[in-house]
Design brief:
About 90% of the residues lie in helices and about 0% in strands. By secondary structure, it is mostly helical. The protein has one domain: Methane Monooxygenase Hydroxylase, Chain G, domain 1 (Up-down Bundle), CATH 1.20.58.220. It starts with a helix and ends with a helix. The N terminus is likely disordered.
């Protein structure tokens, strides 16, 4: 009986150790994901300045960081597929990495659509609102990354940061509504061009980037509560 108990404890220890290793891999993955969002924000800046050359340069960086994030994702899934983590923990960690991957995908999509729409001459107020939306989305991604960093260090702090991500996402939702209202007020009377359709889709992708940051924060909440 004592041998069985020792073996059980050993298996639990191995599982917990492997889980921490995977969370460390998730942190590295999030570093690449946040880089994608950061360069998406730089793309918004270039778009507002009507600097198409800079915009295309930034997109190449977005593409490169997104590929790095993909490689990190595959590494994490491979480690988890080896079955050294408890099935419940494994499911949560897979959700974590796939949701983070969605953040990068939407940020890349937003950047691509900005490239396709560029150049567009925007009113100063509309440009500033678009910049603010990009900035807040970058902030949401940074906060989401911090929630993962805090998972093993301070689960309670991870939950607090998850709440901040949610608040940030709500501000971005409001910004999107205000921004689209301004665009319709300013350009709604002119024939709709493909460029403005692409701009609208880019704005939607930026919002979805923020939505996925909130989804990631929700996953972190669930993991943090199980740790406490």
């Amino acid at each position: 009986m004592g041998v069985i108990v020792r073996v059980t404890h050993l298996l639990i220890w191995i599982s917990r150790r492997k889980e921490k290793e995977v969370i460390e891999l998730c942190r590295r993955h999030l570093d690449h994901v946040v880089d994608v969002v950061k360069y998406m924000y730089y793309a918004v800046e270039a778009f507002v300045r009507e600097d198409r050359e800079k915009l295309m340069e930034v997109f190449s960086q977005v593409f490169a960081y997104e590929r790095q994030a993909d490689r990190s994702k595959r590494e994490i899934i491979y480690v988890l597929s080896r079955g050294l983590v408890h099935p419940i923990d494994r499911e949560n960690l897979i959700r974590l990495v796939l949701t983070a991957d969605d953040i990068a995908d939407y940020a890349k999509s937003a950047t691509r659509k900005l490239c396709m729409a560029s150049p567009v001459e925007l009113d100063k107020e509309i440009g500033e609102m678009l910049l603010k939306m990009g900035e807040e989305t970058y902030r949401a991604a940074t906060l989401a990354k911090e929630t993962v960093y805090m998972l093993t260090e301070d689960p309670k702090r991870a939950i607090e940061l998850a709440d901040e991500v949610e608040n940030c996402e709500e501000r971005i939702d409001d910004l999107r509504v205000d921004l689209m209202t301004k665009i319709l007020e300013r350009y709604g009377v002119v024939p709709v061009s493909v460029k403005f359709i692409l701009l609208k889709e880019a704005i939607d992708s930026i919002e979805m980037t923020a939505d996925k940051c909130e989804d990631l924060a929700d996953v972190v909440r669930g993991i943090a509560v199980s740790i406490l």
